[in-house]
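Hi F.,

I've been meaning to write this up properly since the lab meeting, where we talked about keeping a consistent format for the predictions we share between groups. The idea is simple: the sequence comes first, exactly as it goes in, then the structure tokens exactly as they come out, then a line or two of notes. No screenshots and no reformatting. I'm using this chain as the first example so we have something concrete to point to.
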Amino acid sequence: MKKLEWMHYLFGLDKGHRCGECSHLESFRVGGKTVRKCKVYGESSSEATDWAGKWDACGLRNRSYTGAPVWTLKPRSTAQSRQQKAETPMDGQMEMED
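Output, unedited:
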């Protein structure tokens, strides 16, 4: 599920409004461009948390939110789960050093 779909799933859709109208949307200047982040979804230095003001707003538009960053609540994809399991050592597994 994409990040905006996840926000709509959790908080509903605020029909007729855009994320750009929301107090949770922050803008930053990075290099020569403007980057937007949703404080509710969660912020990082990654493009994965970049946001667009033109997107349909979720039900939290201009409402308070004190929970955990939403991206941390999102279920992992199957590929991410497999990779994490592969990186977790098994009991008795030997480790190789560089």
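Notes:
The chain has a mean pLDDT of 86.
The helical segments are 3-11, 78-87.

If this format works for you, I'll send the rest the same way.

G.
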